[in-house]
């Protein structure tokens, strides 16, 4: 080739474009933002059957060239060749959901009317066949006037044939464009409904069955009850199912600590391993089972098709505070991490809707808070039941998640009545088909999330914990003096503590909030390291952080710490992403300020009420 050729994947959301992109490009991918806009540019290199390379773009999902969001505007401009700095694609790969042809063909007609070399990937034909649909790609190809290749991206079915069709379209690009421009208007404007019927040979009653299920799950009264009941079960499981595995990991850390203590003579290096690495990082790693169980439920809900229904159910609630169900998807993503949640707001067309969603995303309880919640709840909340199959610890965890959601709703209501005032935008969402999740996909998803957690433990948490250990260990205390009082870290705690003492925090808690700005989980490792370094009781020092908190904290103090983490600002990475997405520091500063104020008031109110009740 005399120049670099490009192809672009276009289509509706949920058509399987990303899976097809991964299948065509493998690991040869590069992700960045388009110049001047916060919309992701995902590009990769695919190889044609001839061995020639082609740059493949995965453009944001779109319903129309009449753009309703920044994502759709980028897709329109790139496809039409009007996006500055981006070459017009030589070939368009139009991705259609095989089981939802009528809807997807509406946008397909807009793409085909451009008269550009186009190949259709009729994707997810396996799910269509499972649903009882028998499709005729040749009939659809004749109706559209372009090649139609049946594909199953996740299983790499049809990938070679699609690559060959792309190569053919490139070879005859000029000829193909000239031929399609001269199609008669009736040929190019067949209705989506007629084309879909012409391509469908038969279908079963499965859709009727799914509609019956939706009548229950999407019922405006019964649906929310089912949703919150499911969430309640999830948080019960996080404690009930994870406890044996977490205890085993904690025992393993204890064995390692005893081994290091017995193998090495007393020294600064031994203290570094036992008090810094094992007590600090180890105290976070033991909560890996809770993380895995939480994400197992989330992945099951996503893969089965139920998560989109949850967004639909929440649309009415979101509208009541001036937002739409479109905001629910980014907020839902924020339960895993606020960073992808904030980035997901790019699909929201209305700028005030988008800003409001960004500002409340940190109130969603991200997975980084789970170790903090778990260690405090295990330390101060009895492991008792309050009803058949209802554990008190799981009930408290559920209440903390609900508190974050309620807080987000209240803040959104205030924002939409003041600084981001405006009417709620409309909400259109395609409900995916129900399907049984593939065990392999679930296993890969869980491994990826477990690896992210362990990588954070080995990088951010490790560095922050070791830095705190150094500050706690020097200068050395004089005989009879507390190491915390003598250390540099003690001076930091003394500077912060006067602000937090009125809400029930002790010095160790105040100190833990500083490294926790790097990552929420560091609060646990910071407390573990602080108590390991400063403990005067050797028997207590040998215990885990949970036992130390149980022995040293009052119930009002522990509850105040939990209330703080419901509302406290997210990690520094989240603040940096908020700055990038809002193009300045104004709104991130507003976000951090109101979250700190909410956290202080919530922790204070919790502590004062608990003390007043004599807890």
Automatic annotation (TrEMBL):
Protein name, entry field: Ferrous iron transport protein B
Residue stretches spanning the membrane: 221-242, 276-301, 355-381, 393-415, 453-472, 589-610
Superkingdom classification of source: Bacteria
Keywords carried by this UniProt record: Membrane, Transmembrane, Transmembrane helix
Domain FeoB-type G: 4-172
